[in-house]
């Protein structure tokens, strides 16, 4: 497995089985918190239950029919609705009865009957209360609402039985209240029926008087219409029949006249066309119809004879002969008489046409007048029908209301009820509340759930890195190993060289495991330069760097520790070497590497101190001289470990990460903040640094959370070299 360049700040891609198990283990570590919360809630529940007053219940069973028993026959209808076989109607009906039972009207009847408004015991007032305070409390109390809150209605399944339950601190009073509520409900039911009947009767009486007046007014309106239309002797139907016959007669006569007018018009038009076509020829009149009548025929014969005589004389005499002149004069006279007779025939035809047209006009007028009369009669008939219907409807409604009023007056005299008592309530001496056993069980279960919630909440609030799962799942880093907590009584120098001085301790064993994991990270290309850093100060970075160097030196490698923390260097104090010549001196060209490197009491382990503190550490680490220093050190040593400042404090570690083969992150168990670690890793990812993994430092193996995970390390001791608990190294 090789170190990789990645973005570990995003953490694991999702909830893995390891993270789930980690959460479960975290909850299990807090099992005593869960148990304590559960016991606390149970104790509070028990105390609350024991302080609650004992509540007793009593129940009265009623049989509720949809309608009361029928005494009158089916013709007499009551005001209240009739029974129906519809399922939904019955369901709504019994739901309505339940609301009536728990209504203020029923409760008010019980309060007034038993005087509960003055009953201090019922109202829950103290017995030794001051009289003035009691009077004020009685005035402010709501006994009706209090009683309603104690009433429970339980319908019987698939039956008409309704159970009225009442709860009270006194079992005898509970039974009394239950029976009184049932009685008050029956009384309220009957009173509701009587009120409804009385309201219906009052309304019907008012409506009856109004309908009577409307019926009389309707009859008078019909009478006035008959009188105005002169319908006392003849009905509208008869008048309509007479007018209809007259209209038919006029239509027939009008048809005949129009036929005659058409014939006369044709004759006159023919005469006019004949006269116009003849011009000055007087013989046109011979073709006129009627010209062959007796008188005209005689004139025509005389005209022919006279014309023949004149023709004969014209053959014998000259035109100026007296006889011929006389004959022509007579011929003109006869001719004028003939033309006058023919003209009279034409005038007669025109006169007959005008007469027929006048007759048509008169007939049209008579027909229009008759139609107008028919419309008036129809209008009167419509008005008469409307008034007659209104009068009939008013009369019918009057009779219906009168009959219904008589039925209601008769049914209102009945006092029957559709409710009867099946079983009266009896005092029950066993309380129904509080349910001690159930409350304790519920309190225990709720306490466990609340404890689980508290444990989960505490686990969610845990924002520090404390286990391998946090390193791998939250930060997305390879887990290199753990470093147990060292003894608090040891001096700082002893803690720094603890692995060397206690090689059989659990700390030394863990450091060797980390060394092995690092060496096998990239077996083909072993890391030569390694940066050890942390997200913040006081996380054991320098001590881990020393322990890791000791473990590598014990494997036969020549190891050089570089104190690149040029702000707070500590390696020279840990090994007791001078700090006058170091990295800062070599970078600026003062001294040599051989003189600056100091040997330690650990074989094969050497240290290069920081040297004098420079004013610009980050710029110093960027120089080519520092890179040359790393190259020279790499030629002389097998492993080079750089102790760098914290990542979130300064950028020195990020600069060093770009010049080393890889980076190891030191995380202090239970102290390093996850968000801070993510920010540190993000800064490394920004410079494309190679991450080898993380070391979990200062792990207290005695804690339950580590007991199962790192059980193998605890199996080694205790020995004379092992730590027995303490605080973290700095």
Automatic annotation (TrEMBL):
UniProt entry keywords in alphabetical sequence: ATP-binding, Cell inner membrane, Cell membrane, Coiled coil, Kinase, Membrane, Nucleotide-binding, Transferase, Transmembrane, Transmembrane helix, Tyrosine-protein kinase
Polysaccharide chain length determinant N-terminal domain segment(s): 24-113
KW Transferase (keyword) present: yes
Classification via InterPro entries: AAA_dom (IPR025669), Bact_polysacc_biosynth/exp (IPR050445), GNVR (IPR032807), LPS_length_determ_N (IPR003856), P-loop_NTPase (IPR027417), Wzc-like_C (IPR005702)
Residue span, AAA domain: 540-671
Locations listed in the record: Cell inner membrane
SUPFAM superfamilies: P-loop containing nucleoside triphosphate hydrolases
Record carries keyword Membrane: yes
Membrane topology designation: Multi-pass membrane protein
EC nos: 2.7.10.2
Transmembrane residue ranges: 32-50
Coiled-coil segments: 296-373
Main location: membrane
GO cellular component: plasma membrane
Reaction(s) the record says it catalyses: L-tyrosyl-[protein] + ATP = O-phospho-L-tyrosyl-[protein] + ADP + H(+)
Residue ranges annotated for the Tyrosine-protein kinase G-rich domain, each copy included: 386-458
Single Gene Ontology MF annotation: ATP binding
CDD domains in UniProt: BY-kinase
Family as reported in the entry's similarity comment: Belongs to the etk/wzc family. Belongs to the CpsD/CapB family.
NCBIfam families: eps_fam
Protein name, entry field: non-specific protein-tyrosine kinase
């Amino acid at each position: 497995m090789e170190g990789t360049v990645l973005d570990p700040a995003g953490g694991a891609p999702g909830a893995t089985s390891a993270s789930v198990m980690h959460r479960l283990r975290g909850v299990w570590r807090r099992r005593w918190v869960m148990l304590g919360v559960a016991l606390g809630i149970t104790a509070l529940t028990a105390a609350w239950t024991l302080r609650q007053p004992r509540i007793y219940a009593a129940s009265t069973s009623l049989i509720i029919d949809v309608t009361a028993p029928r005494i009158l026959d089916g013709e007499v209808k009551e005001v209240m609705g009739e029974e129906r076989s519809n399922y939904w109607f019955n369901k709504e009906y019994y739901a309505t009865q339940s609301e009536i039972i728990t209504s203020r009207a029923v409760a008010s009847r019980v309060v007034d009957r038993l005087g509960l408004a003055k009953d201090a015991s019922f109202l829950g007032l103290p017995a030794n209360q001051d009289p003035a305070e009691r009077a004020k409390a009685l005035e402010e109390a709501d006994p009706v609402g209090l009683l309603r809150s104690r009433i429970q209605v339980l319908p019987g399944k698939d039956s008409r039985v309704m159970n009225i339950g009442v709860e009270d601190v006194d079992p005898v009073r509970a039974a009394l209240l239950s029976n009184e509520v049932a009685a008050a409900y029956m009384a309220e039911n009957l009173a509701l029926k009587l009120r409804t009947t009385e309201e219906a009767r009052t309304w019907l009486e008012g409506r009856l008087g109004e309908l009577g007046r409307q019926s009389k007014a309707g009859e008078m309106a019909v009478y006035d219409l008959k009188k105005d239309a002169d319908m006392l002797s003849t009905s509208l139907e008869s008048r309509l029949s007479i007018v209809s016959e007259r209209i038919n007669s006029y239509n027939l006569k009008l048809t005949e006249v129009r036929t005659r007018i058409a014939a006369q018009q044709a004759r006159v038009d023919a005469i006019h066309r004949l006269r116009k076509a003849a011009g000055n020829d007087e013989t046109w009149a011979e073709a006129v119809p009627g010209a062959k009548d007796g008188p005209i025929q005689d004139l025509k014969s005389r005209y022919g004879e006279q014309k023949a005589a004149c023709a004969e004389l014209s053959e014998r005499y000259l035109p100026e002969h007296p006889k011929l002149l006389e004959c022509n004069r007579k011929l003109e006279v006869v001719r004028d008489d003939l033309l006058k007779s023919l003209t009279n025939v034409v005038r007669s035809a025109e006169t007959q046409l005008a007469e027929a047209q006048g007759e048509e006009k008169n007939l049209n007028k008579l027909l229009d007048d008759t139609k107008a009369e028919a419309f008036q009669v129809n209008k009167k008939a419509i008005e008469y029908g409307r008034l007659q219907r209104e009068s009939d409807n008013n009369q019918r409604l009057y009779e219906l209301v009168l009959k219904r009023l008589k039925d209601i007056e008769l049914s209102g005299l009945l006092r029957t009820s559709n409710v009867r008592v099946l079983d009266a309530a009896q005092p029950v001496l066993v309380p129904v509340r509080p349910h001690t056993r159930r409350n304790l069980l519920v309190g225990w279960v709720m306490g466990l759930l609340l404890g689980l919630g508290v444990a989960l909440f505490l686990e969610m609030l845990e924002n520090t890195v404390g286990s391998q799962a946090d390193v791998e799942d939250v930060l997305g880093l390879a887990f290199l190993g753990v470093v147990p907590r060292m003894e608090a009584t040891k001096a700082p120098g002893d803690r720094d060289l603890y692995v060397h001085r206690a090689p059989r301790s659990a700390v030394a064993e863990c450091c060797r495991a980390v060394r092995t994991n690092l060496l096998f990270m990239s077996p083909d290309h072993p890391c030569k330069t390694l940066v050890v850093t942390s997200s913040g100060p006081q996380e054991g970075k320098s001590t881990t760097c020393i322990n890791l160097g000791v473990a590598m030196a014990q494997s036969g490698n020549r190891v050089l520790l570089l104190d690149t923390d040029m702000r707070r260097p500590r390696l020279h104090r840990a090994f007791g070497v001078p700090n006058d010549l170091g990295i800062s001196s070599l970078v600026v060209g003062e001294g040599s590497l051989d003189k600056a490197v100091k040997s330690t009491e650990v074989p094969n382990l050497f240290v290069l101190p920081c040297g004098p503190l420079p004013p610009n550490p980050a710029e110093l680490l960027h120089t080519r001289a520092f890179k040359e220093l790393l190259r020279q050190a790499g030629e002389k040593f097998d492993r080079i470990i750089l102790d760098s400042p914290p990542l979130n404090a300064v950028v020195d570690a990020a600069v060093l990460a770009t010049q080393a083969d890889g980076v190891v992150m030191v995380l202090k168990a239970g102290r390093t903040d996850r968000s801070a670690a993510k920010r540190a890793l993000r800064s490394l990812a920004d410079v494309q640094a190679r991450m080898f993994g993380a070391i979990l430092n200062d792990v207290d193996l005695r804690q339950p959370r580590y007991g199962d995970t790192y059980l193998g390390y605890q199996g080694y001791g205790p020995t004379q070299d092992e730590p027995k608990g303490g605080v973290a190294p700095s």
